[in-house]
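Structure (tokenized):
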């Protein structure tokens, strides 16, 4: 006697079904462009943007008195800073058969992934600019015995003192205290741009205030983790790391602290972000075998005052 008819004997004609809900892609928080000062260059005016800063004059504390002799004249001086834009871009080639056979809307997904690629490229360019141009200071007050040490509240205060001594302006205003249980006011602050691996160290720091304990969270940024003294930290999985760079050959984490107008985001008018689609009749006019989709931009990031941005370098105190 024969056994029952099962799917092992009579499988369905198609054993796979594609869910029309696509899986989420990893999308890191992009933090390194958030503090940049945006500037747009005009087209057909060269590829170099020159910005000028006039130097402060000396003070004049000596009274003129009742004489007729003029005091010595001062000379007006200026510093010019140039930034040259570069072009960046990438694209996809989408074969005709892929578009005809696949069940999911491939072109829609291509547009989304290209947009993410563009913004991540911007963030990477800004991070590289700060890695190469922000003056480094090492944490020295931590407890892990390395050089630099793990981050401490005193190191945060030293970095803020350095910026404020150079007259760098805070990025964010104070968050005043409110009559809410478990909350605390937050000082006027610079933003610290760091890696998500620092989250455990921040949680352990004396005086750390998590965003959940801000008296008012209406102005939180997407990647904000919390604050220590006059620094509010933004953490991202694409934060800056210098591998094996400490005295004990541990990874060094770079925390960038920019003040207002410490770096520019310069783009060309009409080319800050361009999506370029070529249909088959243009991309492959003979047989229309494929189409292309891509992005292009003309951009440069540029530090305009090295006294108004620092790179606070630290190692980890809490093991990953």
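Design, position by position:
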């Amino acid at each position: 006697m024969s056994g029952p008819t099962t799917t092992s004997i009579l499988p369905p004609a198609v054993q796979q079904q594609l869910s029309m809900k696509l899986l989420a892609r990893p999308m890191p928080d992009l933090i390194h462009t958030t503090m940049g000062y945006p500037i747009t260059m005009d087209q057909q005016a060269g590829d170099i943007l020159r910005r000028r800063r006039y130097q402060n004059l000396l003070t004049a504390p000596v009274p003129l008195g009742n004489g007729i002799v003029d005091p010595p004249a001062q000379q007006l001086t200026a510093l010019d800073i140039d930034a040259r834009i570069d072009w960046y871009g990438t694209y996809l080639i989408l074969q005709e058969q892929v578009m005809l056979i696949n069940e999911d809307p491939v072109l829609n997904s291509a547009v989304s992934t290209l947009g993410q690629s563009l913004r991540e490229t911007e963030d990477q360019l800004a991070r590289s600019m700060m890695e190469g141009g922000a003056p480094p200071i090492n944490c020295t007050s931590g407890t892990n015995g390395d050089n630099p040490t793990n981050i401490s509240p005193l190191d945060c205060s030293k970095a803020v003192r350095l910026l404020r001594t150079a007259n760098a302006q805070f990025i964010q205003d104070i968050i005043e205290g409110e009559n809410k249980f478990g909350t605390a006011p937050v000082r006027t602050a610079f933003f610290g741009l760091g890696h998500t691996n620092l989250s455990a160290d921040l949680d352990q720091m004396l005086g750390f205030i998590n965003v959940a304990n801000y008296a008012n969270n209406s102005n939180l940024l997407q990647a904000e983790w919390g604050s220590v003294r006059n620094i509010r930290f933004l953490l991202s999985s694409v934060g800056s790391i210098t591998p094996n760079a400490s005295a004990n050959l541990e990874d060094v984490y770079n925390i960038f602290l920019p003040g207002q107008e410490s770096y520019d985001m310069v783009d060309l008018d009409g080319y800050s972000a361009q999506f370029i689609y070529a249909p088959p009749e243009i991309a492959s006019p003979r047989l229309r075998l494929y189409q292309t989709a891509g992005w292009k931009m003309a951009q440069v990031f540029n530090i305009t005052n090295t006294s108004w941005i620092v790179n606070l370098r630290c190692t980890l105190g809490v093991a990953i």
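Reviewer-requested clarification: The longest strand covers residues 290-303. The chain is about 20% helix and 30% strand.
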